[in-house]
TrEMBL record:
Protein family: Belongs to the AMY1 family.
Keyword Nucleus: yes
UniProt key word Transcription regulation: no
InterPro entries per record: AMY1
Keyword annotations from UniProtKB, A to Z: Coiled coil, Nucleus
A molecular function GO annotation: transcription coactivator activity
Subcellular localization, as worded in the UniProt entry: Nucleus
Coiled-coil zones: 62-96
Protein name: c-Myc-binding protein
Organism of provenance: Dicentrarchus labrax
Amino acid sequence: MAHYRASESKREQFRRYLEKSGVLDTITSVLVALYEETDKPNNALDFIKLHLGAAGPEPADVETLRMELADLQQKCNLLMEENKELRNRVRSLEYV
């Protein structure tokens, strides 16, 4: 019987911890949002992940960001090269 009370005490401590840190409120609000959803999603877990912020970016967003990154890297390389050329010009004019 003492073992049962000890584990019950640990459960209660854990519950208070979750409540204090706002986890229970957050999970409750997400579940309420799912409950109030008129068109229930096919995948409830994805809905919960999305509303908790655990879902990553959409694949289309990732591809767009990759393309933008590649474009910006190319522009950066061109600007670095231009900067190098301009520095060389300034050096050559300093000695004239």
